[in-house]
């Protein structure tokens, strides 16, 4: 028992030192607290891109005569860990602004702590409006929160708009029947709900769908959902899942000789090297950014070049330029406000007009509940010769669509 | 003398635990809340294990309690403080009903069924979309309990932990201990000695389920939302299990030490190795289970006995 008490005492001392010190802090810096799920590619590359932005801004002289400092904590995609990350960054590191975020479940864990500290949050993820936007609440209680990523209903509306525009411009593309294969979690279910409302409500499209268990969560057998889709004979087949589903689902579609007019994937990120697979040919996707935008957008080209130079890998997810944009927007806001105090900073950020690497100028407007919503449109892209080409919006298009999706040989 | 010293130390630890908010910031309090929650789950898992039944249903009952609490508040207008005992009673009732069927099973059959039950609960919640919010979950519009006050939320979780510890000591110090140990050692001998096996197993299953449901209620009241992927997460089964195994099973002390050690190490690794801590943490758990299957408690026991022998 005495030994046990000794062990306990050592643990308490160990805990004290660990939680009191936190990370090494630089004096006289403006601190950004970054919270991402670092085991996931969106978090790994998002945090790396945010650090790249910090380095660029510091190399250009910093903000208000001070250097920026990014302190990153992993939320492990869990609500309780995410809450602890906010507490650590707010009380130990004493950050001035928060950036980051991806999964809605983890974001929900952060919201009570965010509200407690009231510091500006530049959120790069969490699309679940039914929970996250509701938990944030209306203005003014959520005015500290700037949501860069589109909400699920923004995404759905932009897809409906995009397909209407594509069918108008390319009469050979005609869509009457849409099938959505969606992963059974919150992400997939919210995609299904939005698809039914946005495409099915005016009866212009016939909608059907079925859920599957994502390979990321222990699934990986898509036979049932692909059989249902094949029997439905859709003009547009969409799957809403994760990067781990991309290749196995295509393999199984090939084995079943399922080749709809349009085969489209909507994961938050694609597996690295997906474009080099023969299976990827002419697969369409929803997203916000692709390296093809470099040809028409110098900010994107600069981001891409510097990211590869620093990390020796290609950004494989739009969360990288999104996090990069988040840091630049915050930096410009602090410059304009002349302070990191929440009130003036919120006012300054409301005037944001940031020319982003995502191919659009980011401003903040009210969404259904909160006051500060950034991007509201996603893009429709297509894998062509190993590159994600932008098909719509036409003002940022980099290629014409290849239609139909080729039959399997 | 030794016993007196231990008692004084225990009292000091208890006082320090209650008074922690007076001298610790919100971050250590949040970490302590996370550790205490898993500690209480680990203790509850161990309590049933003392009968020889290995349950993998912690996350299922935790999730049931979480949803009972939040739906009680959101749909029935229940006060938040009442939702936590309601979660415990609801989980106990569910355990009582299913216990009649599954407590006829033994060994891996019982384990597999408890694992499946958790998945069944999750699927039910997924599909009752209008009532439970489906996969997206449900949010408490009025916000979290105590307005998010870190000290009060800490004491809430501490109270939940004390309930688990008290129940565990009740199991250890009362005749329940003899009944469960007899069942674990040899059911036939226990039965021939007059132990009503089913009754004691049902009691253990219902009490541990009530604790797990209560903790689910505390969790959702602390964060203001419930989503199936969050509250039915396998973490709520696997981490308590690893904590109990690390500390040493069949006691209250083992899961307590295991939870403190694993909880602190996990947080420390996260800060020191942000991009690779989960790999190190996983390897550490594997090594501990491979080389210390009896847990820290039993590893230290012979050393403590030797020391006592020398001093005598």
TrEMBL record, chain A:
Keywords: Signal. Belongs to the leucine-binding protein family. Gene3D superfamilies: 3.40.50.2300. Residues 39-384 form the Leucine-binding protein domain. It comes from uncultured spirochete. This is Leucine-, isoleucine-, valine-, threonine-, and alanine-binding protein. The keyword Signal applies. It comes from the Bacteria. InterPro entries: BCAA_transport, Leu-bd, Peripla_BP_I. Residues 1-20 form the signal peptide. The keyword Signal applies. SUPFAM superfamilies: Periplasmic binding protein-like I (SSF53822).
Automatic annotation (TrEMBL), chain B:
One of its GO terms (molecular function) is branched-chain amino acid transmembrane transporter activity. Its main location: membrane. GO terms for cellular component: plasma membrane. The chain crosses the membrane at residues 56-74, 80-100, 153-171, 200-226, 238-266, 278-296. It is a multi-pass membrane protein. It is found in: Cell membrane. It holds the Pfam family BPD_transp_2. Keywords: Cell membrane, Membrane, Transmembrane, Transmembrane helix. PANTHER family: HIGH-AFFINITY BRANCHED-CHAIN AMINO ACID TRANSPORT PROTEIN BRAE (PTHR30482:SF10), HIGH-AFFINITY BRANCHED-CHAIN AMINO ACID TRANSPORT SYSTEM PERMEASE (PTHR30482). This is Inner-membrane translocator.
